[in-house]
Amino acid sequence: MNTDDLTAGRIRLRQLQAVDDVVPATMTANIGCSAALVALLLDHGPGVLIGWFVLIAIMSGWRLTAALRVRQAVPMTASTRAIRRSIIQAGVMAVFFTSVPAWLLTQTSGVAYAIVVCFITGLLWAGGLVLSAISRAAAVYITLTVAITICGILVDGMTPYHLFLAFLFIVGGGTALRSAVRTSHTFVAAQLQQIAMERQSDVIGVLLKDYEEQASDWLWETDGELHYRNVSDRFVEALGRPHSEIEGIAFGALCVDESSADNAQMRRAIREQAEQRRTFRDLVIAFKIDGERCWWSFSGRPTYDEAGRFLGYRGVCSDVSTAKRAELRLEHLAHHDALTDLPNRMLFSRLLSQALEPQSASQLALLSLDLDGFKAVNDRHGHPIGDLLLVEVSQRLRSCLCAADHAARFGGDEFIVLHYGATSIAAIETLATCIIETLKAPFHIDGIEASIGVSIGIALGPQDGNTAEMLLKNVDAALYRAKADGRGLFRFFSAEMDGKLQDRRRIIQDLRLAIARNEFVLHYQPFVDSQSETVTGCEALLRWQHPERGLIQPGEFITLAEESGLIVEIGDWVLREACREAATWPSDLRVSVNVSALQFGRGRLPRTILSALAETGLLPSRLEIEVTEAVLIDDATAALDLLRQIRALGVRVALDDFGTGYSSLSYLRSFPFDKIKIDKSFVNDLAVRQDTQLIVRAIRDIAQGLGMSITAEGVETAEQADHLRGTGCQELQGYLYARPQPADELPFIAPGEPLALTA
Hints:
The chain is 54% helix and 17% strand. The strands form four sheets. An eight-stranded mixed beta barrel has the order 12-13-15-16-17-18-19-20, surrounded by five helices. The protein contains 26 helices and 20 strands. The protein folds into four domains: 3-195; 215-319, 2-Layer Sandwich (Beta-Lactamase); 331-493, Alpha-Beta Plaits (2-Layer Sandwich), CATH 3.30.70; 519-745, Alpha-Beta Barrel (TIM Barrel). The chain is of the alpha/beta class.
């Protein structure tokens, strides 16, 4: 049998099935309606009507039985003989169903006549609809029904009323026939399309099998009881189990591994999706194969037959272990120092806060370490040797600690240790001495001998501070005393160190006076286009011209300004002053202003910005607000709402120090920043560290995908600039181009000309 004959046979079968599907309801209706007609008109011919009803009941019962018997068989096609048989059956049914009602038209009048007409009309349309899948059968049935009915009408008389009624049946029959033909054509077209889709599905199945044999993923399938079936060779190979152990096992039972985190939870999630007949995608399960941890991603959808019965699941599975390990590595890097692999400041602060919680009820000691002589080694032998030295320091530091202790790197040559179970001062002194002596021994790195020392400040918790912030502040005070006393020493925090607190109060008081005395000034550091090396704008940087101490850098007073709340008033002044000076610059240059988290906390920053723009006449598009992750940590929802208000003014918003926090990526999803600034800690190592280069490229990809520009800060060498330029960074900023300087000394030059590098 060729393809065309097979298709025709399948369509004939579906035509017959479509008719048989409605036969039970139709035959039942025929018997009921015929019984009602006989009961109403029995006095018009009892013998004829009762005999006719018996015959109708027998024929309907026979047709019903035939339809049910056909349902039990599962043929693939139907012959033309079966179609001819259905046409003959339609003609026979039309004759038997219509003959007696047509005879009744000659025996009745009035309401009884109207009942018969309605009965015949129902027979006409019901039969036409039932047989509409087979147009020829419907045509035979409708034609015979109309012809017999017209004969009954005209035999009763040839009056205009009879002729008009006959005409109505002709029109109705034609309409029913036209509807049946259209329905038949639509049905056949739909079946042809479905058959084509089934063939396409078969082709897809072949392609999927070929795909599974060649691709890195593999297919899986279950039966209606959610047991694996038709297990492929690649699936067996990937699991490393015999075929017999996989076929028939419950879905999800292959990935059981109680030692893997979230294994049970993810298996339960997939099982629930499958039991609810839901489509699921990319659900990852962690488990072990031959002792090696792996991650598999499952996607699947339920399958059904033509009758809507659930057949099971089909899906694809892929090994995402490589990507998952990379993800875990990135997560680890977010919480650990990339160089030494020690916890970073963020993670350590969290650990310290947990250790100070009341339920911990444990004495602890905090040791703050600052390497003595490290800068000299770094300057003399270069950053690569300095980095290796820091790695060696971290390893020696670990050797001095107990298993429960934590060491962290806070940046540069600053380390800190959290020592649990500090039961005696003597034990803490022993630990501090061990660290000093261990780090005092010479280091041998790449044939170079380097010697350093270490100064240690010690604070005890909770007596020296019951919060992480307080304890860290006090341990820094102790470290300051240790360094002041001669270095290579350790000192415990004591109340005597409150002198530093007194100095802090004096600085805060001076800050209050500085606002009134107008002692603050702004310096500006340009942004440079990475390709043309022309100035695109400047970042406003605050300086304090102290009457006694001279020019003070922001690192020496900004923290105190934030702690005292003065940063809000200072920040407002910076914003207005930066806008005022930028309004005098060339119109293609913008000014960037850093804002504090405290300014966001007050909630009036958008009004302050609007006021500054209105006072100075600076276009909103020339103002850029730089925020750090600290702005978003305390109340991200409120901060993001303020950022949206700022954006609505037409002001650009940049995320500063990107990559140094642990949740910056989530903020990029929550708010469309115009720009992200790569922190200088990445730029410093860019030319010598491959992992830093990978991170910078990843930041580039994220920014491009989200439609953001990138500025790299802290660019000090041409090699760094070349790396960043090749990576796709649009703007550069750093000492390589210009140091921060007053507005009247800025290197603004004609557009299109490159900026001369700083000598």
